Amino acid sequence: MWNLREYRRHPQRLSDHLPWVALVAPGxxxxxxxxxxxxxxxxxxxxxxxxxxxxxxxRARLNNAFRRLGSGWCLHIENMRRRAMDPVDRPMSNPIAxxxxxxxxxxxxxxxxxxxxxxxxxxxxxxxxxxxxATDLLMSDPERTHDRGxxxxxxxxxxxxxxxxxxxxxxxxxxxxxxxxxxxxxxxxG
Length: 190
Known about the structure:
The chain is an alpha+beta fold. It has one domain. The protein has 6 helices and 6 strands. Strands 1, 2, 3, 4, 5 and 6 form a 6-stranded antiparallel beta sheet that branches.
């Protein structure tokens, strides 16, 4: 595991309250407990206009994607609802189209519109080093490097990224907008 003893046990600053240690890969955060985190933005279907059958189908697909994760995973799902930007007046050459657009804009101004964006933060705590050492005693692999600490770290990071990529690929099949956040948006979303 990582040596995280340099962090205070009794919080004195904001950084002491945050679980983050460092960015270890694009969009991947190492936390003080040795876990890895990343955040994925997605936009789901409009639940007001979707039929119950469509919502059940989306739930089943989400369940199918998330059940592949296994143990050691934690998902934090957040829904952010923001007021939509006011519509922009665009003059049209066709008077009928202009009339329809004017009525649409008036309706949008009279009732506030909102946009929803959902975020999933994937957090995974790799198995403890003691489990790894016990496994190495029982099984040997000649392809492993001699530097087991670095090798173990890279294996765990690769496993984490691969699992998240698989889930993102599955979500893109049925959700309109799915993307993993990069460093700055991940640290400041909201």
